[in-house]
């Protein structure tokens, strides 16, 4: 497919900070990214090596951690490296690749969070049938659907954007390649593409968010019949899930469910869902969860015993 553009690379304006701040941010974001990698890896290792964490909830959680690692790795390393350079460039191909992977992992995460809500719904509203409904093959199928859904969504976004003509200027007012900042640089009418992009991204975020909302309302209503101990445990699990959902969906809906006018706040909001949320997820899921904390302690003591031997 021949592109009607003569832009071979884009210049990323980044977070547009003063040089002094850029060096501070380099260290700060490097710490954030390290926490994302270590926190999420710790969850994956704990779930995989712990016999007590074999329920579907933890099966989904380990995949969520994997997606978080991939998702933040699409934008964070480049952002961190760019803090050290005055001119932040990215080739056209790398830009499209970044756009693809960003939407692929982002959309997969949206679907995974929705699957996790379904899992909680079955666990709390149909406890007697939980193990027969949420079998390992059903869970694997739901995870596969999330990945395939993310792939299809991302292919549409990337193909729609890649076929736009870019003939300069080539400055992207962002720290990574996303649909809205790129639309502004296209030298043709992007109205139809914008509508398709908003429908694609926005409607996925919004419809999944409504599904999640409804499932949690049903869960909360059904908890009235539970014992106070059961209610407390269910509420604790759901609270951490709802927190993650709000942190992730809020910014997504704000960015993608509107025309492609870009606001100066967009970059800050993007930092939130590309870096802050993947960093907070492991904390939210472990701090509120005794089972995970106990499994981590056991894993830690096992490692210590092995070292001592």
Give the tally of β-strands: 3
**Distance N to C terminus:** 61 Å
Count of separate structural domains: 1
Q: Can you identify the CATH superfamily?
A: Rhodopsin 7-helix transmembrane proteins
- Most strands sheet: 3 strands, mixed
Indicate the low-confidence ranges by residue numbers.
none
Instruction: Quote the beta fraction.
Output: under 5%
Structural class: mainly alpha
Radius of gyration: 21 Å
Organism: Alligator sinensis (Chinese alligator)
Domain G-protein coupled receptors family 1 profile: 39-285
Protein name: Olfactory receptor
GO molecular function: G protein-coupled receptor activity; olfactory receptor activity
Write a structural description.
The chain has helices at residues 19-49, 56-82, 92-125, 130-133, 136-162, 179-183, 191-222, 228-256, 266-287, 290-308, and strands at 9-12, 88-91, 171-172. The chain has one domain: Rhodopsin 7-helix transmembrane proteins (Rhopdopsin 7-helix transmembrane proteins). The mean pLDDT is 86. It has ten helices and three strands; from the N terminus they run E-H-H-E-H-H-H-E-H-H-H-H-H. Helix 3 (92-125) packs antiparallel against helix 5 (136-162) and helix 5 (136-162) packs antiparallel against helix 7 (191-222). The longest helix is centred in the middle third of the chain and has 34 residues, at 92-125. It has 309 residues and is mainly alpha-helical. 37% of the residues are buried. GO terms for molecular function: G protein-coupled receptor activity; olfactory receptor activity. Belongs to the G-protein coupled receptor 1 family.
């Amino acid at each position: 497919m021949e592109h009607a553009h003569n832009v071979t690379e884009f210049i990323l304006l980044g977070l547009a900070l003063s040089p002094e701040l850029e060096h501070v941010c380099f260290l700060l974001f490097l710490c954030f990214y390290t926490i994302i990698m270590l926190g999420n890896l710790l969850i994956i290792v704990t779930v995989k090596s712990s016999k007590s964490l074999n329920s579907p909830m933890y099966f989904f959680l380990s995949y969520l951690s994997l997606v978080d690692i991939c998702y933040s790795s699409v934008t964070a390393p480049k952002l961190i490296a760019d803090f050290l350079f005055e001119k932040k460039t990215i080739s056209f191909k790398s830009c499209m690749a970044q756009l693809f992977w960003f939407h692929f992992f982002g959309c997969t995460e949206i679907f995974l969070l929705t699957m996790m809500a379904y899992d909680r719904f079955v666990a709390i509203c149909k406890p007697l049938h939980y193990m027969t409904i949420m079998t390992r093959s059903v869970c694997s199928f739901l995870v596969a659907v999330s990945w395939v859904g993310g792939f299809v969504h991302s292919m549409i976004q990337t193909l729609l954007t890649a076929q736009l003509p870019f003939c300069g200027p080539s400055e992207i007012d962002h720290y990574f390649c996303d649909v809205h900042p790129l639309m502004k640089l296209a030298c043709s009418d992007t109205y139809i593409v914008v509508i398709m992009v908003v429908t694609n991204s926005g409607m996925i975020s919004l419809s999944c968010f409504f599904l999640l909302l409804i499932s949690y309302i049903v869960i909360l209503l059904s908890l009235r019949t539970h014992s106070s101990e059961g209610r407390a445990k269910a509420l604790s699990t759901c609270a951490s899930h709802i927190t993650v959902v709000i942190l992730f969906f809020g910014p997504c809906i704000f960015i993608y469910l509107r025309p492609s006018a870009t606001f100066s706040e967009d970059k800050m909001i993007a930092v939130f869902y590309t870096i802050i949320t993947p960093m907070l997820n492991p904390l939210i899921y472990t701090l509120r969860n005794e089972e995970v904390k106990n499994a981590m302690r056991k894993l830690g003591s096992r490692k210590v015993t092995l070292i001592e031997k």
